[in-house]
User: Fold this.
Amino acid sequence: MLTIHRPLGVRVTEDADPDLGHAVVVEGRSLAAVGPYEELSAAYGERARVREWDGVLTPGRYEPDGAALLEAAYWPDPREAGALGTEPLTGDALAALDMTDTRWGASARRGVQRLLARGTVLIAGPFDRAPVRAAVDRSGIRWYPAPPPAVPTRALIPGRPADFAVFAADGRCLATALDGRLVHRRA
Assistant:
């Protein structure tokens, strides 16, 4: 299926100025095209659905502390908010919990969801805990098995996976896509 994502503008790299009036075309799991909306609409419009976004579409964020956020922190279940709060627990607070494999896996799933809600599409590992690694793998978020030597360059390039995020002017993440699939969308 073809989808044209029509934001206010597109940053082809995270540090580029946004190209206002541009859009991206997603075909299946890949980016098919990036360019002015009018041109993309003329080329793909009859076959594509259009999603409009009130923000700027970017390659998405990289989280270099992925392993620490998912393996050295506990992301409380919303049902535990009264007792544990809503922010990740570390240090003595984490040590006081009975952390079973099941609890680590559930925590990692919630942590990944929070990262996706921030526009994160790539994280650094490694993930030594099997339930955490399984949660990360099932989520579809991309990860390096070890921290890369430098911050990886991410760009919106036709033919590559359609991993991107859309950010509002105030910095809130409106949507995150992995392989062209929306995995986070702010209501």
